[in-house]
Amino acid sequence: MNSLYIQKNRGKKMSIIRRFNNVMWSSHHNTKDLLTMKNVRNGVSQVSPAISEGQTPPPRQTYSTKQFLGLLLGPILFFLILYALPLEGLSNEGRGVFATIVLVATWWILEVMPLGITSLLPIVLLPLLTDVTGKEAASSYGDPLNFLFLGGFAIALALERWRLHERIAITVIGIIGTSMSGLVIGFMLATGFISMWVSNTATALLMIPIGTAIATKVIDLMKEENVYTPEEDTKFTKSIIFAIGFGATIGGSATLIGTPSNLILAGLTKEILGIDISFAKWFIFAFPMIVILMASAAFYITKFAYPMKVKKLEKGHIFVMETKKELGKMSYEEKMVLTVFLLTAFMWLTRTFIWVNYIPALTDTIIAITGAVLLYLIPTKRGDNGRLLDGSSIKKMPWDVLLLVGGGLAIATGFSKTDLAVWSGDQLLALEGTSYITILAITTAIGILMTQVTPNTATATILIPIAATLAVAIQVDPLPVMTATALGTGFAYMMPISTPSNAIIFATGKITFTDMIRKGAWLTALTLVLIILFVYFLFPIVF
Q1: Helix (H) or strand (E) holding 500
Q2: Helix axes 279-300, 332-350, angle to 10 degrees
Q3: Residues 490, 66, 36, 162: is their CA dihedral positive or negative?
Q4: Is 159 exposed, middle or buried (0-12, 13-18, 19+ CB in 10 A)?
Q5: Is 264 helix (H, G, I), strand (E, B) or coil?
Q6: Which residues, listed in sequence order, are joined to residue 312 by a DSSP beta bridge?
Q7: How would DSSP label each residue in 101-167?
Q8: How many CB atoms lie within 10 A of CB 372?
Q9: For residues 180, 186, 191 and 193, what is the CA-based torsion angle, rounded to 10 degrees?
Q10: Distance (Å, rounded) from C-alpha 517 to C-alpha 522?
Q11: pTM, two decimal places
Q12: Residue 136: which of 148, 127, 144 has the closest Cα?
């Protein structure tokens, strides 16, 4: 009887594991399909429903060529670093961290497993190969910064649910004006503003449908006014799409929660240097640079990349009026979400100036979670006993990203508890004597170039600790060098695979690979220069 019971129990456990694996892969593929608008490009009107519990998923190829390459390459590199490469002076524990970094990075880039699952490998490998305990490795996944991101995403979900993002966008466009350039600039500013508080991915997904709808309407208006040409059609449509893509990428770097790279920087500086980067200080430093970059990008798109002969549409303001009429007056729900949104932003911005004197324990994470809790508490007036956010929103949270950030922090713990950091610095002594501004340029350029072909979260996780080590090796303050590197990883314009924002605009089918390379290259060069100048001159004043 006991053996029969054990077999049945084991069968149940295996069934649960199989279902969990199926659900994780289904979530991974559904997310990729959503980000690349696969269903739209294939002419499917609805997104396939998620696989329910107990339902058998459709058959898939076990490993693609890329995944199979990663499956082999990752362990090969892992064991080469661990046992074969002549890394003189590096301890076995340091080799273990180095090998873990390479394995995780390889599987991240080649998507051997879902990103969130790959990010759990440090929990397994670090305690086995280093002095990092299982508790220390696992605690990184519960870091307060992950909950800061969680709170920010809850606000994003509320904005989307009650269409407040549309009202913000159309309001900005109405203020800017109805000229062709004004509409492009309005979309860039609206997207950039939302991206400061909402993830770049979510912002691009929210704004692209609005942008393409407005582009279609404007083309119709051009035909009505007999100023339409295919060339003007192409220019305006591409201008709107690039304004959304570039605006989402640029705006996110203005705040700590706008892009994962900034969160990773904040986590690693606290882990490695013991320095807490506050929301307000980061905003004071980064916002002026973002304003200049946004203005430059808008000027470039409208005057150089896609200059239009049609300057203004007489009926352009009609579209704004019609959209405002469609949205109607602000509902009670919108007002409540806006109140929570503004209150959360105000508390973030003033915490270090005002509230730290009265509530010393108050942190940006506490503020974010308080805002999220309020959204789940405040009732609606729809008569359905609902709240501003309900339980279904939990399923939409970016768990993969949160695990990715946690994996990066776990690796940072391994970095700091072994001699890998010191050893890496010793290898970089060849740069000793190089000017400080040259070091900033090198680290920023490496960050920008790597993030064109790898996820910015993975790039930031790998490069920021190395930048800190380089700074220590040449005897300069590591914080500015780490900041320059993190900023570099946050700006990827040239490749569809660089960021989800790029993938989203590329998937519209309205812009080509060549378009992204050419238009992104100029903006990349400008971004590199601005990061160096701001980190060199403004960063020491603010921090």
Answers
A1: helix 500-506
A2: 110
A3: negative
A4: buried
A5: helix
A6: 179
A7: HHHHHHHHHHTSS-HHHHTTHHHHHHHHHSS--HHHHHHGGG-HHHHHHHHHHHHHHHHHHTTHHHH
A8: 24
A9: 170
A10: 9
A11: 0.63
A12: 127
Residue type, 3: S
- Which H or E element spans position 46? none
Name the residue type at position 377.
L
Using alpha carbons, select from 3, 20, 219, 240 the residue that is nearest to residue 114: 20
CA distances from 327 to 164, 190, 194, 320 (A): 9, 17, 18, 11
Q: Which residues contact 229 (CB under 8 A, 6 or more apart)?
A: none
Task: Name the strand (E) or helix (H) holding 441.
Answer: helix 436-451
517 to 429, 492, 511, 513, 520: CA distances (angstroms) = 35, 11, 11, 6, 5
Each residue's pLDDT expressed in tens, for the chain with a length of 543 residues: 555 555 555 555 555 555 555 555 555 555 445 444 444 334 333 333 344 444 555 556 678 888 889 899 999 999 999 998 888 888 889 899 889 988 988 887 787 888 788 889 999 999 999 888 888 888 888 887 778 778 877 887 888 788 787 777 677 667 766 678 888 888 888 889 888 877 676 677 778 777 877 787 778 778 877 788 888 888 888 999 999 999 989 998 898 877 878 888 888 888 888 888 888 889 999 999 999 999 999 999 988 888 888 777 676 677 677 777 887 888 898 899 999 988 887 887 677 678 878 888 888 788 889 998 999 999 988 766 688 888 777 777 777 777 877 887 788 788 778 887 677 666 666 666 778 888 888 888 888 887 775 667 767 877 888 888 778 877 888 899 999 999 998 888 887 666 767 777 877 778 887 888 888 888 999 999 999 999 999 999 988
Q: Which helix (DSSP H) or strand (DSSP E) does residue 455 occupy? A: none
Name the DSSP letter for residue 454.
S
Nearest-angstrom CA–CA distance, 277 and 50: 39
d(CA 522, CA 122): 38
Burial (Cβ within 10 Å: 0-12, 13-18, ≥19) of residue 179: middle
Burial degree of 510 (CB within 10 A; 0-12, 13-18, 19+): middle
Q: What is the DSSP string of 367-427?
A: HHHHHHHHHHHSB-SSSS--BSS-GGGGGGS-HHHHHHHHHHHHHHHHHHHSSHHHHHHHH
What is the 3-state secondary structure of 233-258? Answer: HHHHHHHHHHHHHHHHHHHHCCCCCC
Rounded-to-integer distance, Cα 42 and Cα 391, Å = 31
Structural element, H or E, at residue 93 = helix 92-110
The CA distance from 418 to 93, in Å, is 6
Task: Pull the structure tokens for residue 355.
Answer: 């509230």
